[in-house]
């Protein structure tokens, strides 16, 4: 059974991500943790309404959070009734980032799935600061769903890699699971500038080929093109439904996705984006 964390702020954006989650894993046994965090600002006592103190305010906000989670669970179960799925609700007086870190100590999550506002203009930030922090530091994979992205089964998965990660089955398991459940094709692309792959890169590529043996997959080598350019071209040529990357901390990943604006990144990310922590040092 998969443990999947669904952070929510009760927005349309987070509801859209939840709909994606329950449809993507409709055929798998999952325990969904629906989580809402709240940190009400406590104002100076002299400005408070008579009879309301800081502790009462926290109680009010906690009650609102708990009632919101109750309604949300009912909504999910009404629209996506599924005997494979169970739900736990977490209302926490905490920041989202801290609660995720603390929660991981109690329950090992297989995936965090959350909405992120899609970029609609050249000057808008691609991800909110919370999403960026969680993607960079999470101990488990994170799947970010763009705002208003309607669920499509991930038949075509794009997996850029520099082959600097020594792949293992545990690390790639989620990709394999998604691929098998959706009859996906995994398109692995590597960009080069005329240099041959090193011995380590060749070995890592062979490991990946072996791990993906039960899933349809193809390897591509793209010459003299940036990673962003290669991704953009692939998205235009093929109907990519999911972008996957392994965050090995020292590769093109950080340079690519943590620039602040679309103009720096060079393309619009309009498909779900799965980031898997490497879990080990690179070669």
From TrEMBL:
InterPro entries for this protein: Universal_stress_UspA, UspA
Pfam family, one: Usp
SUPFAM superfamilies reported in the protein's UniProt record: Adenine nucleotide alpha hydrolases-like (SSF52402)
Domain UspA per the UniProt entry, residue ranges: 1-146
Family: Belongs to the universal stress protein A family.
Protein name: Universal stress protein
Species the sequence originates in: Polaribacter atrinae
């Amino acid at each position: 059974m998969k443990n999947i964390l669904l952070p929510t702020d009760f927005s349309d954006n987070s509801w859209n991500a939840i709909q994606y989650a329950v449809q993507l894993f409709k055929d798998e046994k999952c325990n969904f943790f629906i989580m809402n965090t709240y940190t009400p600002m406590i104002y100076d006592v002299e400005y408070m309404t008579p009879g309301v103190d800081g502790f009462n305010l926290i109680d009010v906000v906690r009650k609102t959070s708990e009632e919101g989670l109750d309604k949300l669970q009912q909504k999910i179960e009404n629209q996506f009734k599924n005997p494979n799925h169970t739900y736990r609700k977490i209302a926490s007086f905490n920041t989202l980032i801290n609660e995720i870190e603390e929660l991981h100590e109690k329950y090992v999550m297989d995936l965090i799935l959350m909405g992120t506002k899609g970029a609609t203009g050249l000057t808008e930030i691609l991800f909110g600061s919370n999403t960026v922090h969680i993607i960079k530091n999470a101990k488990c994979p994170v799947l970010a769903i763009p705002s208003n992205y309607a669920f499509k089964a991930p038949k075509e998965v794009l997996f850029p890699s520099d082959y600097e990660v020594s792949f293992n089955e545990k690390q790639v398991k989620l990709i394999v699971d998604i691929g098998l459940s959706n009859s996906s094709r995994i398109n692995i692309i590597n960009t080069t500038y005329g240099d041959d792959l090193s011995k380590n890169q060749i070995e890592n590529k062979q490991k990946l080929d072996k791990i993906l043996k039960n899933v349809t997959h193809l390897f591509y080598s793209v010459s003299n093109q940036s990673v962003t350019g290669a991704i953009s071209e692939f998205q235009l040529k093929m109907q990519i439904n999911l972008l996957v990357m392994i965050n090995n901390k020292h590769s093109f990943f950080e340079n690519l996705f943590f620039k602040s604006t679309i103009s720096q990144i060079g393309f619009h990310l309009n498909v779900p984006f799965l980031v898997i922590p490497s879990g080990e040092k690179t070669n």
